[in-house]
Fold these 2 entries.
Entry 1:
Amino acid sequence: MSQEGPPENGGTDARQESLRQEIDRIDGEVQRLVNQRAAHVLEIARIKEANGGAFYRPEREAQILARVAERNEGPFPDQDMVRIFREIMSSCLALERRLRIAFLGPEASFTHAAVQVHFGHAVEEHPVRTIAEVFREVEAGTADYGVVPVENSTEGAVNASLDQLMGTNLQVCGEVALRIEHHLMSHAPDMQSIRRLYLHPQTQAQCREWLQDHMGGLEWVEVTSNAEAARRATAEPDSAAVAGASAAEFYGLPVLAAGVEDDPENTTRFVVVGAQWVGPSGNDKTSILVSAPNRPGSLFHVLQPFSLAGVNLTKIVSRPARSSLWDYVFFLDLDGHQEDAAVQEALEGVEAGGAAVKVLGSYPRAR
Ligand SMILES: O=C(O)C(=O)C[C@]1(C(=O)O)C=C[C@@H](O)C=C1
């Protein structure tokens, strides 16, 4: 066991001391440069104020973070270096204007984690209770942007979000892809002492096999969010929750079994919505809504123009149109920005085939 004590090796100690002096010098330099960067950002803010431009520029942030990863030579891993720059930019943007972000809460939900990954920590976080409320807050201008889940790799589309996108005038300005890991958490001393399990139906679906194998005989209680499951389990020591690491941390619940989701690649995709058109970043996606007439060959005529224009489709989901019975609309995601010639050609082709197209937004691809 190593203990603090009188120095045993003068040479090693002197080396440590000189390395620490060098670290102090570098820290001073880093701090000076971060403030120098912030001063430039403030000047940009003054120009934006004079010309009426949006403070938040997702396309510029995506370019900066891509470059950070590209030029990174280690020993820091790319994702850690990106996270540091993410926070520097978040704080720089907060000097211009502290953004208020509405998201599907409560605190410590996966959507909350998506907000922090995308915007960093220097924002005002505004958890709300429903997906519809997120849209209402941003539409009313009481929040600058909103974040909602749109699809999970195991469970498919989040219909409440798609239905809101159908009716809103907001734009999709960004996406976040988050690996979703579920843990079993409880104040119980071991798994055998657990009598009751709190969990969200989506979580139950994503952990079905593990739960059947390990928690089969227990009482399962469905709750409205992962964070609520953790909150309930906190109050009852013979209960457990299945939820994410941030919920365990937020409620101080010990993790008894980690990574209990059936698919190790389990991922949820979130979108950022706002009243803002986002310019091209060079690595973008576009989400559109297509309403096609209900007749033979209709879907073929929607899809063919993308093939002809060489535009890659990454998603297609159908939802019943709310306007009339048995009519469907299609949500499509495609590679490229709506300003790209190939994308424009494809969209014109779809309209020429008799379908109506609503562009939901172009935005930088998730990292
Ligand atoms: O380039 C800008 O427009 C800035 O406001 C600067 C900056 C940054 O910190 O680099 C900050 C916020 C924007 O979202 C994008 C970039």
Entry 2:
Amino acid sequence: MSSTAIVTQSRVLSLTSLPEASIQNPLSGWNIPQDHPIAKTLFKEQPIMNAESLEGRLLFAIPKKGGIVPFISLMYVNKSHPGRLYEKCLALLAGADIQFRRHHRLDVCLSLNHNLALIFLPASDIPSFVAKGDIDLGITGHDVILEAKVQGLVDEVLRLGFGKCSLQIQVPESGPIKTIDDLAGKRVVTSFEVLAGQYFDEVDERLGLKGDNKTKIEYVGGSVEAACALGLADGIVDLVESGDTMRAAGLHAIGTLLDTEAVLIRAATPKRPELTQLTDLITKRVAGVIAAEKYVVVQYNISRDKLVSATRITPGRRAPTVSPLEEENWVAVSSMVEKKNSATVMDQLVAIGAEDVLVFNLDNCRV
Ligand SMILES: Nc1ncnc2c1ncn2[C@@H]1O[C@H](COP(=O)(O)OP(=O)(O)OP(=O)(O)O)[C@@H](O)[C@H]1O
Ligand SMILES: O=P(O)(O)OC[C@H]1O[C@H](OP(=O)(O)OP(=O)(O)O)[C@H](O)[C@@H]1O
């Protein structure tokens, strides 16, 4: 599919001709009447969008869920989130200073400050668009890349540290099936038929199960966890994050196919090499936001004779910055350390005689 075809399918309209009477506030997600002064400002700032205005722009795919913030009461009756990856992606775009105004009815919008357009798509559709080069850059789950069988066609350039979960084999806790081998040859329901199919092909092969005796994999688009209770499956293969859904459905995990998280992907062979420079720039910006979330800067004073021990504790990404202090034989050291280790690092520094140990959060960085 060419990028023009994507545009056509995504209801790209000139904003001046939109029939809707409201516009979504990109910060709160709530709709504002079109004649409200804030909405007027948003409309004025939004470039007019049509197929021509996408010409030559880098296309950046973002998982689309979450256009509308649901009422709180609805969140209790519906387990679906307004968009697990979507909300995090918005924070990432803001950190990378990719400005845009998204109309709540549109899945394509132009960046206000870069030669790029954001394309909001289901997470599971993003791998194949990027693999074909129709979209230059995308964010999606590592799991859906494997499910789409596009490894080799897309480069996973950056792990993003969110959207972490595992694809697990689950069976009723109180039932007779206790192991993978018990489940082999029976009925498995999943939204990941490729990965589940590959996995059980190997199990079947190992157990010598052939023809009608092989494990039967059946696809469903959602609510996978209901399949056992409905009598449709003996086991399921589904994503597990907190485990709440699995437990609520009376299931437990007997195996893990893979651990996954959100990743930034690019086409292994870009269709439009002229956009590589901008793709690199956006990649570096996103990497900077991720690193800023992952690292803190620790700064401390230490006597020069203890510097070797201190730099073993805080080696930095390349090397620590060491500056002489006015006091003889004392230096100030600053170094990036992983946020999750910062308390331990502070304890270790104090234990070897460091003083005035300070930790700073990073707003942003280039690494
Ligand atoms: N608890 C979770 N359940 C499902 N997916 C999760 C979870 N936590 C993280 N993810 C990641 O989010 C991806 C799904 O993204 P998103 O929530 O945008 O859904 P989607 O593609 O619209 O699909 P669906 O409608 O099936 O939820 C998964 O492929 C996985 O990588
Ligand atoms: O371990 P947990 O934190 O409970 O999350 C896992 C659940 O979330 C996903 O479903 P989703 O909310 O996308 O709904 P769906 O059944 O419609 O796919 C997934 O398919 C599990 O059912």
